[in-house]
Amino acid sequence: MQSESAKMTTAHEAGFRVQYPNSKQRAAKVIALDPASAAIVEEISKKSWNGAAFFTSLAFTAEGNPGAVGGDLKAWLKDLAGRTMDLVAEVEHSDFVVVITTTGADARAVSVIADACALFNKSLVGLIVPGQDDSDAATTESMKYLRPYTRMLVIASGTDYIEAMLTALRA
Fold it and tell me: How many other C-beta atoms can be found within 10 angstroms of the C-beta atom of residue 123?
């Protein structure tokens, strides 16, 4: 069945129409901010994805001399295979970053990820997954951590919603 716009298009105009979908692969980095969201990320990663890489933890180490004032902080990600990856390098080689947290979890680490995204002008998408028994107030509290840093903030209803979101983003 033809769409209304296809019916109204002349044969000459139809010759200029792109006949295939936009299929450019996008390098997405999906980062869990807490143990509960790590389980969600592990489950989602089992699906077939184009260019998505999944990470289940975030850790920090100080660089420079131990005990020195003003030392740099280095952020590390752990992928699903247990390998340690440099946060900044992963963000640099991505098209966008998605962080996932559950309601009530400590999501303050998002500020470090946001700094890395800002450094390379990458979009940061935040997904909050509320539990069945979580109140609206708890969800609102979780949003306070993510809202200042994300370009898009979504309350996801579960793994199916997250999968659909990543598919829409061409991850």
Answer: 15
